[in-house]
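Researcher: Let's try something more involved. This one mixes different molecule types, so please make sure each is placed in the same coordinate frame as the others.
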Amino acid sequence: MKKSKIFFKGISDVSPLMIPVVPFGIIFGAIGMDLGLSPYMTLGMSIIVFGGASQIVLLQLFSGGASSLVILSSVGAVNSRHLLYGAVLSEHLSSLKLIWKIILTYVMVDQAYAVSNDYFKKNKKNTNKHYHLLATGFTCWTIWQISTLIGIFLGSIIPEELGLTFAIPITFLALLINDFKKLNNVIVMIISGSIATFGYQVIPFKAYIIVSALSALLVALFLTNINEDKK
Amino acid sequence: MHWSLIIYCGIITFLTRFSMVVLPKKDTFGKKTKIVLSYVPSAIFPAIIFPLIFLDNAGNVDLESNPKILAAIVAVIIGYFSRNIIITIFSGLISYWAMIFLFGF
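Model: All components are placed in one shared frame. Result:
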């Protein structure tokens, strides 16, 4: 298949997944403004970091007065799922030049990974298949920057009474809906949330996100072991 | 906020995406590690969600005069049945605003 055809296939494959990205980007831009960041910094964050969850965690912890070390380790924890994406996609990208790997992994966000991994599995032998990931990644990138800009603009006119910061927990909650029906995931969620809530004032250095996440992952490991024993 | 902090966060984010692609070993992760990594969103997002919903500005648990809890419950129920991210976000926000502006929570 021709490169351009694969590229356009990528755009059309990922497009439906862009619908929830728009409000998320707008909320990020608006909250950046709400917390007193400059428009340049807010947009700069979307370009340099390019990861919704990481950016919100960065804002959230920064506004709470967390230290850089806590912020960086928390962002690292949020991003650890990408290690899995990279490991899964590496077999399809192994023959590419380094510059391709750099460009493609810069845009390897959840949505691009999900759609392109699917395509790679079905088109293993196609030597141009990486154009699919290029397309899905840069579609996400473009939509994310545009919606951040809209949020920056709206953030300066949205009245404070609307309590826009409530959009943060609601957006993250919405990202978990597909796991609500899995009992193990719900257990992990409740444990993580409870430790964070009750540890918020007790755990030093605002490290509550990383502490709760690691504890909950230990529980996940424990639950995985139990499931394996049953088999 | 310093630009340097943003750049460091960008580097960390990039490295988590990049490292496994360039690592020479093929089967880096065992099956179990992959399963546990798939739990990362469930383990991390609630640590962000819960404090923002249950705590007041001073960091104390607030269960009484707290419209955020009810709005979050609405969003969980709607999300559970609709499986639609946008509908979930809007159901939470609209019920929150309804409680504040219509019912004076």
